[in-house]
TrEMBL record:
An example molecular function term from Gene Ontology annotations: peptidoglycan glycosyltransferase activity
HAMAP family listed in its UniProt record: PGT_RodA
Listed EC numbers: 2.4.99.28
GO cellular-component term (any): plasma membrane
Residue stretches spanning the membrane: 13-37, 49-67, 73-90, 102-125, 145-177, 184-204, 282-299, 311-329, 349-369
Topological relation to the membrane, as annotated: Multi-pass membrane protein
Subcellular location: Cell membrane; Membrane
Name of this protein: Peptidoglycan glycosyltransferase RodA
InterPro entries: Cell_cycle_FtsW-rel_CS, FtsW/RodA, RodA/MrdB
Alphabetized PROSITE patterns for the sequence: FTSW_RODA_SPOVE
Length: 378
């Protein structure tokens, strides 16, 4: 079916402008953060630009594509997701204690769990839309938990705790947008936190209850509570991040002038800790700009969800908002010591092809829903 150009009158150009601003900032900050990592100072910038280009094509395609047609492929998309996660477990490329990647073409690494985030959103939105009005009790929610549990457990088995937590955030967020009572959701969250706290307390007690976590994951939790307990190992990254952000002051030290960044004292500063680069080199004002851009991104997406033409569109955008919110909160939180380190990238800003493609497809879906929305009153 040809694209109806009259739909473009519904396009939110402010949302698009915000995405362009974040992407431009990503390239600018990456050029500084990676200047001393490779023999080619623009190596990572070029790869990021390639990911942005491919992602842009995907975003335009998804925007033009009627999102309602995706609901028909719910079971197919869900099956492909499970197959990809199984392939990772069987033949995946391992790095840093986790088997998360598939090697393509001999040199390119793709991370199926990243694409899995948007795949589970597309699939689960269709599932929930069919159960509208039938999600009133805990018993009603059990099938939804089972639906999510299979890919969730496959990701935990990699092990990739960060992405598993993103899946949980997507689940809870989409249930909220599906109309599940806030009291019921808060009860589930409270119960889950109580179980986690109790398990941790028993693990560190004389009983030493074993946890279903890898040793490096447990060490990350310990360093979150007290990074100075092991400042040269598990707590090193958080401490260096705090030093970087704290030394930036109001205006920052300037691009290519950050001590922690240019001297490579902070590991992964171009990926998971890109916000630390912003804090040190662009200061409080630069960090504030990033937060403002994300606020506009989320608020405009919320407006799209509110005025979506149907339940499926609302759930689709709601899932994407939940994913973005958790990424933003967790990533920035871990750079300032408020959250444990999980290896979750900052949307549109961190270096990473799989992450960039996932986010660009996601924004394309938001725009697709936006184009086909109900008439807005403000």
């Amino acid at each position: 079916m040809p694209f109806n150009k009259r739909l473009l009158k519904n396009l939110d150009y402010l949302l698009i402008a915000v995405i362009f601003c974040i992407l431009a900032l990503s390239l600018l900050v990456l050029s500084s953060a990676t200047a001393n990592i490779s023999s080619d100072p623009l190596f990572f910038v070029k790869k990021q630009l390639l990911a942005i280009g491919l992602g842009g094509i995907c975003a335009v395609f998804m925007m033009a594509f009627d999102y309602n047609r995706l609901a028909r492929y719910q079971h197919f998309i869900y099956a492909v997701l499970l197959i990809l996660l199984v392939i990772v477990m069987v033949k995946g490329h391992a790095s840093r204690g986790a088997q998360q990647w598939i090697v393509v073409g001999g040199s390119f690494l793709i991370q199926p769990s990243e694409f899995g985030k948007v795949m589970i959103i597309i699939s689960f939105a269709s599932y929930l839309a069919k159960r509208e009005g039938k999600l009133n009790t805990l018993r009603d929610l059990l099938p939804s938990f089972f639906y999510f549990s299979v890919p969730f457990l496959l990701i935990v088995a990699q092990p990739d705790l960060g992405t598993a937590l993103v899946f949980l955030a997507i689940l809870l967020g989409m249930l909220f947008f599906a109309g599940v009572r806030p009291g019921l959701l808060l009860g589930l969250i409270g119960g889950g936190l109580a179980v986690v706290v109790t398990a941790l307390a028993l693990h560190f007690s004389p009983l030493h209850l074993p946890l279903p976590l890898e040793e490096h994951q447990i060490n990350r939790l310990i360093s979150f509570i007290d990074p100075y307990r092991d400042p040269h190992n598990t707590g090193y990254q958080v401490i260096q991040s705090l030093v970087a952000i704290g030394s930036g002051g109001l205006m920052g030290k300037g691009l290519y002038r950050g001590t922690q960044i240019q001297s490579n004292f902070l590991p992964d500063h171009h990926t998971d800790f890109i916000f630390s680069v912003v804090g040190e080199e662009l200061g409080f004002l630069g960090a504030g700009l990033v937060l403002l851009l994300y606020f506009i991104l989320i608020s405009r997406s919320l407006k799209t969800a509110f005025f979506a033409g149907n339940t499926y569109g609302r759930l689709l955008v709601g899932g994407i908002i939940s994913m973005w919110l958790f990424h933003i909160f967790e990533n920035i939180g871990m750079t300032i010591g408020l959250m444990p380190v999980t290896g979750i990238p900052l949307p549109f800003l961190s270096y990473g092809g799989s992450s960039m493609l996932t986010n660009m497809v996601s924004v394309g879906l938001v725009l697709s829903v936006q184009l086909r929305r109900e008439k807005m009153l403000f």
